[in-house]
Amino acid sequence: MGLPALRSGSSAIPAACLALAAAGCTPEPVPKPFAQTGELVALSGGDAGPRGACHTCHGMSGEGDGNLTPRIAGLDPGYIARQLIFYADGLRQHEQMSWIARQLTDEQRSHVSDYYAGMEPAPLERAPSVRLACEPGAEALYLQGDPERGLEACATCHGRDGGDAQAGSPSLAGQPAPYVAAQLRAWRSGERYGDPQNVMLAAAQAMAEEEINPLADYIARTGDGSDRPGFPAECPSPRRRDPRSGA
């Protein structure tokens, strides 16, 4: 049985025609605008929304805050992407970062990692270091490690000046001392893990608690010309190391 003929002047359109018309003009899916570039993810937060925008904590140039928020500009893109996955999967704990990482798509994580990796790290203003004269052991730990304790030299993976890191390892030059110290303690306690071959876990657990702050201070001042030693008069009286305070 055929379709009924349309009456002259009638606006009635058979349902079959409507279906055919709709099938022929279905629009292509519109891509999410904030998934297209790393810059847009950094500024908008991508799927995490405005409260997940990277620049609100890490700065417009990825420079960090000089305290507990790290510099992410110039880091290895694979390292950044891997940390976002760790946050999303719970291997690395931070309330805000874990929430943000879970909202982002794989594409957004990749784009924003490439975006910050391509940034030139901005120099930070720092006062001259006093601890390098007072704690010469920090420089030795960074450059040489301590084979007797199985403690690998930081420079092996992160470079002598903290900026020439191996692929997949973060550059350390200019990272804030409080952030570095907090991460060393997280590695040492086992709260942070997931590095290849557990190199960081083993190194941090071989360190003594009193070595962490001086080493973090040394790391924070590598590669920026501010590692000038202080005057001996500014150094506190030396204390004998307690042999019970090892790893």
From TrEMBL:
GO terms for molecular function: electron transfer activity; heme binding; metal ion binding. Residues 1-21 form the signal peptide. It holds the Pfam family Cytochrom_C. Residues 33-120, 132-223 form the Cytochrome c domain. Gene3D superfamilies: Cytochrome c-like domain (1.10.760.10). Residues 219-247 are annotated as: Disordered. Residues 237-247 have a biased composition (Basic and acidic residues). The keyword Secreted does not apply. Transmembrane segments: none annotated. PROSITE patterns: CYTC, PROKAR_LIPOPROTEIN. Keywords: Electron transport, Heme, Iron, Metal-binding, Signal, Transport. PANTHER family: CBB3-TYPE CYTOCHROME C OXIDASE SUBUNIT FIXP (PTHR33751), CYTOCHROME C4 (PTHR33751:SF9). This is C-type cytochrome.
